């Protein structure tokens, strides 16, 4: 197997041979980028901080994105931006408001500005529970050598991106509409960067993965992309749709000192408040640590003039109202380590043990889909299923993580994958990632390299270079990086992930087993079938008012 060679300390890189910085002329004006270096030492033409919409500030707060105005002179595309957010992934775990409201920018990377043949385009939608993170965390260095144009971007988050008053005043889903605006911009402009607007693949992790599937379901994104790949997230996950958005909007108004009698006055007042005040108020919705992790997110906006999500995603899938395009969906063995790695502490586990019935609805995101008087009963059923008669501590911690993995991710991934496959003639591929490399994203949460499992988003680090996880420090990790990049690139270019194993897609009948590629190590990739993957029978028995329990009543 050919290894990646990452040049850590180059004396000269090829970019230094160029006396002029790269420039691209758009309808909006001239962009001036800069040079980066790929993992194989090749030049990357980089344009960071390219505006794709007007700054959503002042009267544009809570409104749909507007096309960007032209600029005078040269736009220096060499700065990344971050949308305003309550960011809890700080080294010491403190909550803090970071970023700016003026944040609707994209980062574009290309290996060639003037190729003889236009290249496939990969558009990455970042995760972060629709509440935090930024596009620039996933770099181009691993994939750019495969002759792909790579785009990542920011979209509005939390209340600034997903507030809804359940009417046409603030319908909601502004962050999703930002994503759609990016796809429209790419369709019009990506050829200037050597990209083919007729070969666009959208890829997302976690909330980004849920977003990808939502783009399959929204009429407004038809024709803007041609393949999709959802990592560790789907449209049916319990956290991917927010319940009672008006109630949350009015609570936010109260917290920021705004009137709540007339919605129009409420919205005007919220527009006048500092963005940091609005975002900081999010902490009042999270009773313990940062749970529930999604407070403001997508809504079924049937009250909007042009709804982004015109019906419940479960109904849209059942009625086959989904774009018939290749899709891939994946998950890892320890999905629940987000947010569960924050609990890997005896004191926190003891607190959760003592307050199980009160905290579990927020951790497992069922506080809004069951009657409050049933919470204790449901909490005890979950406890009996996963802990039995044992106490919660470090010895039984992995059972808590399994409960979180099943409830927050896998049970609904199975449901969404089977329905999606049955609704289209295009293939739907799936993989299960169970490789723990030298490092994991859990390290920054537990301040240790102790192996507590394969974490949510660990697989992502073997496709996109990130500062959070080094996947190039061992031969096995470098081999895994090459395999995962090969899977990604094969799907982007051909709509078919490429590995040595004969990888077959999901069946077209929801009653058939789940079929997936099991990734254990660089030398162990196994096609397998499973009767179920997320303990669905148990979770379905609890009667949460979501998905089929809402749509098939």
From TrEMBL:
GO molecular function, one term: carboxylic ester hydrolase activity
Pfam families found in the cross-reference section: COesterase (PF00135)
Magnesium as UniProt keyword: no
EC number(s) from the headed UniProt entry: 3.1.1.-
Domain Carboxylesterase type B: 22-517
Sorted UniProt keywords: Disulfide bond, Glycoprotein, Hydrolase, Serine esterase
Sequence similarity: Belongs to the type-B carboxylesterase/lipase family.
Name of this protein: Carboxylic ester hydrolase
Organism: Callosobruchus maculatus (Southern cowpea weevil)
Lineage start: Eukaryota, Metazoa, Ecdysozoa, Arthropoda, Hexapoda
